[in-house]
Amino acid sequence: PQKVLTEEAEKRLSTIREFTEFGSGFKIALRDLEIRGAGNLIGAEQHGHLAAVGFNLYVRMLKEAVQELRGEKVEEIPVPVVDLQVKALLPDEYIVDKQTKAVLYQRMTVISSEEEISDILDELVDRFGTPPPEAENLLEIIRIKIRAKEVLVEQIVQQKQYITLKFASDPGLSGEKLMEMASRFANPLSFSTSEQGKLQLKIRLRSLGREGILKSVIKILDMLKEYLEKPEKLPQ
Q1: What is the pLDDT of residue 45?
Q2: Helix, strand, coil distribution of the chain in percent, nearest 5
Q3: Contact 200, 166 (CB under 8 A)
Q4: Quick count: other Cβ atoms within 10 Å of Cβ 104?
Q5: Which residue of 60, 84, 95, 232 sits 20 to 30 Å from the alpha carbon of 139, by its own alpha carbon?
Q6: Is the pLDDT of residue 76 over 70?
Q7: Is the dihedral of CA 94, 97, 100, 103 positive or negative?
Q8: By three-state DSSP, how is residue 15 classified?
Q9: Global pTM value
Q10: What is the 3-state secondary structure (H, E, C) of 211-233?
């Protein structure tokens, strides 16, 4: 039987046909955001800066559209949402050329390891000099997303002096481990469950400075990884 494209897949294929020349990834990225809605990709767009562009997006869109045409399930890779009150971007004063900046943003969206973060930091220093705080924050946001995904955290949201970590699924942390974490962590921690029954962890910040915010999140993610890998005590 003939397969029928969904409305979204039709729009994507139309966009690909419209911008078929190589190098039109920027236009495709813009159209894709119009179709899907602007999601939080690497943490910079909440400040009005586009953080997704390039040929990789073109390929992904084409693959998803073909999968839908075949009636196959489109695999959605969850990317943690990070919404912290820090300015995270590549300033115009640091990188003047817009095309160069767009390529760097695109490369940052696919970073998946500490080694890749280190490599792009070295490249920034070599090409443009010491990164300003906003660029350092951007790399920290990427680092946070990588570590959040490792411990099943799907959302990290700051509201004034509180940061809430929401888990995508049950991480398997016992009440004993949670209490031990709370006793060790420098900031006050509290735990609750969402309406969907998922674990939520809330940090109360002592400082609203950017370093305090980012370091607190990195620290709790590292601690979560430690406790997830730590075996439960056997009963006596």
Answers
A1: 40
A2: 50, 10, 40
A3: yes
A4: 20
A5: 60
A6: no
A7: positive
A8: helix
A9: 0.66
A10: HHHHHHHHHHHHHHHHHHHCCCC
